């Protein structure tokens, strides 16, 4: 519809027309015209105000993961944009659709190093799929439509739109732009026939699923294909919710918490079917499980962008396809009457089930038992959010994911992600149980977003695992320089008292027998709740102790 509107109104209408229903932000004077327009549209466009742009950007990225639609974050110029860059990097490496809107100085002042001015296009070009600065209010609808199409097309990812303050303030008459068609590549019949032929000849095949662009339907269809072919499936790093973990074909996760048996099986496989994943550094244990550029395994690589295929690994078969059309075609493939890998597949599944049995956990609080109690009480559709650190090994190894989407975690290993992601999940799905795991180092990077939870009435359960140090870095420090730890110790607050000061229900747990009563109270609180778990520093990972690492590397 053509009518006279401010740039802020045009932008708000464009976002709504493209399907946006939520905008995260830290308010800035550079986009006040948009906030004024959002006031009149608050029944259709929810604005969630965060306490730090990093938290706002994380939440928008998590929204994109949850919905498959671009998460929207609005931040101010220079400092705000710099803070938000961490969420854009997360969206890029996680292949998550996201649109970052950035206020900018007035057009007449550009190039003068005006207040908070940064060359935002140069800053975000390496981090985003597309960067565009809009130079007139009349061009806003088409720019927003292009941003959504770019964020969703091919390999999903982040887009940055730079919006000078005077563009949002000026008045223009312009047409709205309907959503543009999203270009999703489909696999050709000959590629699928070749895939079936290669797979049918294998004796030790293994599928690896990951990346972005999945849907619940695509995950279910791929699972149907894998079960029909008795094809074992491993999840790429932090992509454990694509295939139901109770399926007989699911065999575990590749990543920092990979089971040694699964790592060995990747090396032993004679065929790898990599679907959606880039087979990155973490999935391949530093590119050692799959050799580059010529893998030992026959590699079938399915990815939505042709540029990725062959960039690191030379595949025997490259399939350019988005996940939903590939999964539909795969589900229609007829499995052979006999396949020669039943014992192989059964062995992988048995090893995965054995990996679910916790190892010894030193100290008064047994995290293996904590995870067993959580598993017994959390609903099947609970959304599990984590940031980065060794503590993530506990939910990654012991939680069973059943539904897509129920895992929100940054594959770029970005700390502080868990709490903002949990707030995004609660804002979108208020009736689902949402649990944010955080280490003591990870939590304090975005702990101020407890105020955001209180402001907006969002009530996840936050579990802070406190071992008094940056555990991952200490682990590497003791492995490389045993007995010479520096800069990895932490002085922590009373996390339960901190949470209570924000209006949360909170408790500190130091012994295993105290966990269940505290958990049940937290789940029954029906408000923001936090459990502060004091973990012995010796419990450095789910598999070994700090002393064992130190002594091994001293010898």
Description:
By secondary structure, the protein is an alpha/beta fold. It folds into 3 domains: 172 residues, Rossmann fold; 167 residues, Rossmann fold; 184 residues, Thiamin diphosphate (ThDP)-binding fold, Pyr/PP domains (Rossmann fold, 3-Layer(aba) Sandwich). 37% of the residues lie in helices and 17% in strands. The chain has a 6-stranded parallel β-sheet with strand order 3-2-4-5-7-6, sandwiched between helices. Helix 9 links the parallel strand 9 and strand 10. It starts with a strand and ends with a helix.
Layout: helices, strands, pairs:
Layout: E1 3-6, H1 7-17, E2 22-25, H2 32-39, E3 46-49, H3 53-67, E4 71-75, H4 78-94, E5 98-104, H5 120-124, E6 130-133, H6 140-152, E7 158-164, H7 165-169, E8 171-174, H8 189-201, E9 205-209, H9 216-229, E10 233-235, E11 250-253, H10 260-268, E12 271-275, E13 298-303, E14 317-320, H11 323-331, H12 342-355, H13 367-377, E15 383-385, H14 393-398, E16 407-408, H15 418-428, E17 434-439, H16 440-443, H17 450-456, E18 461-466, H18 471-480, H19 495-501, E19 505-509, H20 515-524, E20 529-534, H21 546-554
Parallel strand pairs: 2-3, 2-4, 4-5, 5-7, 6-7, 9-10, 9-12, 10-11, 12-13, 13-14, 15-16, 15-17, 17-18, 18-20, 19-20
Antiparallel strand pairs: 1-8
Helix pairs in contact: 1-2, 1-6, 3-4, 3-15, 9-11, 18-21
């Amino acid at each position: 519809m053509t009518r006279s509107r401010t740039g802020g109104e045009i932008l708000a209408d464009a976002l709504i027309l493209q399907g946006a229903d939520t905008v995260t932000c830290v308010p800035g004077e550079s986009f006040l015209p948009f906030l004024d327009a959002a006031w009149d549209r608050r029944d259709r466009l929810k604005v969630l105000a965060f306490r730090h742009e990093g938290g706002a950007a994380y939440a928008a990225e998590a929204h994109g993961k949850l919905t498959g639609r671009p998460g929207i974050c609005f931040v101010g110029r220079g400092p705000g944009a710099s803070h938000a860059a961490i969420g854009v990097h997360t969206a890029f490496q996680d292949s998550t659709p996201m649109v970052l809107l950035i206020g900018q100085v007035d057009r007449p002042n550009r190039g003068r190093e005006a207040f908070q001015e940064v060359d935002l296009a140069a800053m975000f070009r390496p981090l985003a799929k597309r960067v565009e600065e809009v130079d007139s209010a009349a061009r806003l609808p088409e720019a927003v439509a292009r941003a959504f199409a770019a964020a969703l097309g091919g390999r999903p990812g982040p887009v940055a739109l730079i919006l000078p303050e005077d563009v949002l303030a000026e008045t223009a008459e312009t047409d709205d732009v309907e959503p543009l068609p999203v270009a999703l590549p489909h696999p050709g019949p000959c590629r699928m026939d070749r895939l079936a032929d290669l797979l049918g000849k294998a004796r030790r095949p293994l599928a690896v699923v990951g990346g972005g662009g999945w849907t619940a339907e695509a995950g279910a269809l791929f699972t149907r294909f894998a079960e029909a072919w008795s094809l074992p499936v491993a999840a790429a790093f932090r992509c454990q919710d694509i295939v139901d973990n109770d399926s007989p074909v699911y065999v575990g996760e590749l990543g920092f918490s990979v089971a040694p048996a699964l790592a060995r099986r990747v090396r032993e496989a004679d065929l790898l079917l990599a679907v959606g994943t880039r087979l990155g550094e973490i999935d391949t244990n530093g590119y050692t499980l799959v050799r580059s550029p010529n893998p030992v395994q026959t590699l079938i690589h399915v990815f939505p962008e042709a540029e990725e295929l062959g960039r690191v690994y030379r595949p025997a078969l490259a399939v350019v396809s988005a996940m939903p059309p590939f999964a539909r075609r795969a589900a229609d493939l007829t499995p052979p009457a006999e396949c020669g890998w039943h014992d192989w597949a059964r062995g992988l599944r048995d090893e995965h089930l054995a990996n679910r049995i916790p190892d010894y956990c030193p100290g008064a609080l047994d995290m293996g038992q904590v995870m067993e109690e959580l598993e017994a009480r959390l609903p099947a559709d609970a959304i599990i959010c984590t940031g980065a650190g060794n503590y993530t090994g506990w939910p990654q190894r012991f939680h069973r994911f059943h539904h897509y989407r129920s895992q929100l975690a940054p594959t770029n290993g970005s700390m502080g992600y868990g709490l903002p992601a949990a707030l995004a999940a609660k804002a979108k799905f208020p009736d689902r149980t949402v649990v944010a795991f955080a280490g003591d180092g990870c939590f304090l990077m975005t702990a101020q977003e407890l105020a955001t939870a209180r402001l907006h009435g969002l009530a996840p359960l936050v579990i802070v695992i406190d071992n008094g140090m940056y555990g991952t870095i200490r682990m590497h420090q003791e492995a490389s320089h045993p007995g010479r730890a520096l800069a990895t110790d932490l002085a922590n607050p009373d996390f339960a008292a901190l949470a209570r000061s924000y209006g949360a229900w909170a408790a500190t747990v130091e012994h295993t027998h105290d966990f269940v009563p505290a958990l049940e109270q937290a789940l029954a609180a029906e408000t923001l709740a936090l459990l502060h778990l004091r973990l012995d520093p010796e419990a450095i990972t789910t598999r070994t102790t700090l002393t064992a690492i130190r002594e091994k590397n001293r010898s």
